[in-house]
Write a structure and sequence with these properties.
- With about 55 residues, this protein is mostly helical.
- It contains 2 helices and no strands.
- Helix 1 runs antiparallel to helix 2.
- It starts with a helix and ends in a 5-residue tail after the last helix.
């Protein structure tokens, strides 16, 4: 998921260099959403990964 967020960020940077600002705003929005979803999943996996098995 973090890989997808980084990919959309790179797409936004390349589109910004070439002046496609509509694509930039869309790609940045998608990258932000994916990054926050990744962070939430990471924190959840840290919390549930710490439980000891009986």
């Amino acid at each position: 998921m973090l890989g997808w967020a980084i990919m959309f960020l790179i797409i936004a940077l390349v589109a910004g260099v070439f002046g496609f600002f509509g694509i930039v705003s869309t790609a940045v929005g998608i990258a932000k959403i994916l990054f926050f979803v990744f962070l939430i999943m990471f924190v959840v996996s840290l919390i549930f990964g710490r439980r000891q098995r009986l």
